[in-house]
Amino acid sequence: MSESGVQIDVARIRAGAVGGRPAAATAASARPSLDEAAVRDALAEVMDPELPMLSVVDLGIVHRVDVAADGGPIRVEILPTFVGCPALELIKRSIAERLAAFGRPVEVEATFEIPWTSERISPAGRGALLAAGIAPPGPDSAGLAVGGLIDLEPRVPCPHCGSRRTTLENVFGPTQCRTIRYCADCRQPFEAIKPV
Amino acid sequence: MSAVAAPPTTALAELLRSMADDEFVIGFSDSEWTGIAPLLEEDVAMSSLAQDELGHAAALYGLLAELIGTDADADALAYDREPTDFRHCRLLDHGRGDWAMTIARRFLYDTADVVRLEALEGGSWPPLADLVAKLVREERYHRMHAGAWLDRLARSEGEARDRLLAALAELGPDAGTVFSPLPGEPALLEAGILAGPMAELEARWRGAIGPTFANLDLSMPPPVHDPARGRLDHGEPFRWLWGEFTSVRRSDAGATW
């Protein structure tokens, strides 16, 4: 269970301002300056293991990035897409490995401080999903979030032919974040991101 | 971050244990359908549901481990306790049963669980309130699944409906045990962690499922006999399940992946 276990840092310290930029390079630092933007650029190269066409940035799971002044640690907080996401530990490791290139200590933590929602997937991420044959979450998810149960039934366009004559075959799919649908026009089953 | 008042630890630990054990036991029971569900689609669905529930249990056990501050981590809490130390509700103590039993159990549990979660959303202890906000979004899909199947079985004629009626007759008397009173309930209410007493939540749940049961011509679950023991006295089906889910852990204590 430790693979999917999410430890919540109860005594999370939020004192530091987010994205503070070091005023000057320290002697110990190999790089003259490192800021939040550079870290986020690096995170854009870390792909999700279950949706490998999406970076963690496009998936919208990067919450807080904090670069300590004085060559101190890089802290990244990520939002699990699902509470029991089995890829979480792998994602944390991938992020830590990529950021190790900056030559500083790296801390990666998961938090539920705000819930990840499928609305957080970026426009570029939606395009990448579509190109891979996976329907991105539609605007229907807003209705679902309000409390409708069957609202995701209509209007999820087929990623292959664009038809809107698609039906929900299974609320559950090959991963926690996907559902299975069927297109009545091109007669193909397809996966769609589960609106949450 | 402003200082958060210290939560009533003992009462909160009891709440977390009851919720985590519920999710763990129903998740593990659901996982037994992997490979043998009546339809391939349901094989996928039950496996995914089980993964969700075990993930919820892991997160809740993680909170519990941090709260009580012992060496026990989420794995130890799930796998290293004796059967008598579990506090899941008796509704989940009837063995996997057939498909109708599984659907009846899921419907009764999921509809009750959401009432409980809604009473915890926005509570005063941020680690739990934050997690609950996320759980609520996922549980919506579980209710959709259980509701669709309950409808399908109840509207069938012959064996499917008969089996559903038999399952509800067996599970019904224990359905309300999700809302068994907790030892530290007054402290949870006073601290603003829980929005209402369990008895009140149970009434809310009965009101919520009433129309569905009426539409499908099903008898409402009767009141629980001896609610104070609703999370105790786990019988033989749970001892069997416990043997299953601890077998790997017991075969090589301390092993890691």
Polypeptide structure, described:
The complex is a heterodimer of chains A (196) and B (257). Chain A has helices spanning 36-43, 56-59, 88-99, 123-131, 140-146, and strands at residues 62-67, 74-78, 106-110, 134-135, 166-170, 178-183, 189-193. Chain A has five helices and seven strands. Mean pLDDT of chain A is 81; it is low at 1-30 and 140-151. Chain A has a four-stranded mixed beta sheet. The two termini of chain A are 24 Å apart. Chain A is elongated, with a radius of gyration of 19 Å. In chain A, helix 3 (88-99) links the parallel strand 2 (74-78) and strand 3 (106-110). Chain B has helices at residues 9-31, 40-68, 74-79, 99-120, 126-154, 159-175, 185-190, 198-215, 236-251. The model of chain B has no long low-confidence stretch (mean pLDDT 94). Chain B has nine helices and no strands. Chain B has one domain (9-219, 232-251): Ferritin (Up-down Bundle). Chain B has 257 residues and is mainly alpha-helical. Chain B is 65% helix and 0% strand. Classes of the chains: A alpha/beta (196), B mainly alpha (257). The A-B interface holds A 1-8, 10, 12-15, 80, 82-86, 111-117, 144-145, 149-150, 169-176, 180, 194, 196 and B 1, 41, 44-45, 47-49, 51-59, 61-63, 66-67, 73-75, 78-79, 126-127, 130-131, 133-135, 137-138, 140-141, 143-145, 147, 257.
